[in-house]
Amino acid sequence: MSFKNGMNPDAKRFGRGTKFISVMDILNNQFICYDNIRASVEVVDGDIETYGVNYGDILFQRSSETLEDVGQANVYLDSKPAVFGGFVIRGKSKSNYYPMFFRYLLASPTARKKIIVKGAGAQHFNIGQDGLSKVCLNIPSIQEQEKIAKLFECIDTRIATQNKIIEKLQSLIKGLSQQLLSSENDWILYRLDDLAQIKSGYSGTQVSYQTPYKVSRIETISKHCIDIQRIGYVECIPESYRLNVGNILFSNINSIQYIGNTAYLDKDYGLYHGMNLLRIIPNTTIVRPRFLHLLLCTDWAINHFQTICNKAGTFIKYYKISQLIHTQSIAN
């Protein structure tokens, strides 16, 4: 496989023209096709020849904030030519292979370990063409590749079906929550900081290697639950920062659409409270932790947090999050 870094066009060229593959297209799709590429760019003479992406090409994430995410890969499965950006590396086949097999192979734990060790950096991690070219992988015959890929595709299809069912149930929960959690008839009005302690996380320097001390990051709660695969590490941390069952993590420093994102600690993850998230510790004599989390997930609460945040810095100060909130007595 031969490798090539992507293009870095002037900002004025974006918004029209040929589809432009970015890191988000690599991360957010089972595979990449022309219609699900988000961005577009106006190409000039030579761009398609130099930066063109064709059916079966592999696209790699070149740069990441975490070492674990560097070199994530996806495959392009479309006949329409596209181009790719500077934070992406294109891999072109030098021999015959089944494209979707490579998509699954490069996501396997064995391949990921071999790719990750080629990454380098301190605050930001990068992988280059030279590093990728030195990754060695065992592959079967083209016939076996096709069989394996089709098996995984069947499983992915089943997962997608189940996810649609889950989305419908989540929509039902959201609808019920809006109705059941918006009644104020016999509810008591509290300030949030009367219902819970609100604490900032540990601001010590994180390291790029694994240690016994796992800390939360903004990405840890990006899926509205604790994603133990997206954490950081520190050399040591006071035990007072350890997260306990019933704690709620709250995103107060983020892009505005993610302000107010929360995750509930449903079990002991052996995780500590890192920076850039607030930790809400409910007072269980007044409110049940899970109930408080549901309140914080309502549209009213999220819209309120996004309204009061500092749009320039995109964060919520402690005193602003200590808002008034209606809740029922725990006795009810």
UniProtKB/TrEMBL annotation:
Family designation: Belongs to the type-I restriction system S methylase family.
Hydrolase found in the keyword field: yes
Protein name, UniProt field: Restriction endonuclease subunit S
PANTHER family per UniProt: TYPE I RESTRICTION ENZYME HINDI SPECIFICITY SUBUNIT, TYPE-1 RESTRICTION ENZYME ECOKI SPECIFICITY PROTEIN
GO molecular-function term, one example from the UniProt record: DNA binding
The entry's keywords: Coiled coil, DNA-binding, Endonuclease, Hydrolase, Nuclease, Restriction system
InterPro entries in UniProt: Restrct_endonuc_typeI_TRD (IPR000055), Restrct_endonuc_typeI_TRD_sf (IPR044946), Type-I_RS_S_subunit (IPR052021)
Transmembrane segments: none
Listed GO biological process terms: DNA restriction-modification system
Coiled-coil residues: 159-186
Provenance organism: Phocaeicola vulgatus
Keyword DNA-binding: yes
Lineage: Bacteria, Pseudomonadati, Bacteroidota, Bacteroidia, Bacteroidales
Residue intervals of the Type I restriction modification DNA specificity domain: 11-170, 185-321
Pfam families, A to Z: Methylase_S
